[in-house]
Amino acid sequence: MTAIVQSQPAQAEGRLTEAVGRTWMRFWFTPADTRPLAAVRILAGLLGLVLAGSYAGDLETWFGPGGMIPLDGPEGWVGTRVPSLFALARSTVILWALFGLLLAALVAVTLGLGGRLACVAAAALWASLLARGPVLAGPADDCLAVLLWCLVVGPASARWSIDGLLRGRRGLPTAGHSVWARVALGLVRVHVAAITLAVLLAQLKGDSWWDGTAAWWLAARPGSATHGLTRVYRGSEYLMNLVTHAIVAFEVVFAGGLWFAATRRLVARAGLVAWPLIGVLAGEPCWGLAMAIFCVAAVFPTEAADYTFHRYGTVGIQGPATDTVSPRSPG
Fold first, then answer.
1. Pick from 253, 250, 255, 247: which is nearest to 213 by CA?
2. Does residue 191 register a pLDDT over 60?
3. Which one of 80, 191, 227, 257 is separated from 93 by 20 to 30 angstroms, measured CA to CA?
4. In the predicted model, is pLDDT for residue 221 greater than 70?
């Protein structure tokens, strides 16, 4: 009897360890549909072109010879901890050549041409541009950098891409489900939850998010596109409080809901609408769009049934029946 009683905690610990292991393997290594990753790739590439375009008009003013951010400028204005390819631009010709390579890489990512090589080039060049002048980088720029590096991990150009069309013409199969797609989508979800949590904690440090006046302060900032809302909030304190606390409530639900199968797709779909609205209210519309792009990774179902992991060297986990689709298969 004593032996049985003593074995019960050990059995419970064993079941807990097994459950944690299954959850870990399912989250990171269950092959996922490559289409959500392709959607993230297209949207991230388009956003990258918009953000890169915002640098183009003043590129020489900021980074050219005699520009406002010289290479020997003060720390914080010039990136010193992270090497930057743009630090090699000692002339306007080299500067524009590097910037042209960045634009070409972003176009290739958007069209799905060049696979991981295009994603690596876009991610490295974008990170180099941000490191050259970190004082200019905004939250949307940082989010785009995260998205591009996540695309490097998975087969982002497997679907809805020029690469996919070329494979189809050659009669080669197209990846339908992939372990690396799961890893990439998992990284996207981890990062968007971490960013949301960081935003939430930063907000709750200020009294205005507790007393309900934060919405008014966001609209009242000089140059705010939503400055007209200050008159509305002045006429209705309850509306001002509602908007402020609704933003906080959404962020709490979003950061937690992403981790439960029953709520993941629901909160992700809500994020497609809520994050752009929050971005507009915060005066960072591109950041709101970047956060919505993160949500795309969790909006659509990514798993299928009957896949066996044995071909990947992992035993005892089941998933979709194949990781490829015929070039002539629908979808």
1. 247
2. yes
3. 80
4. yes
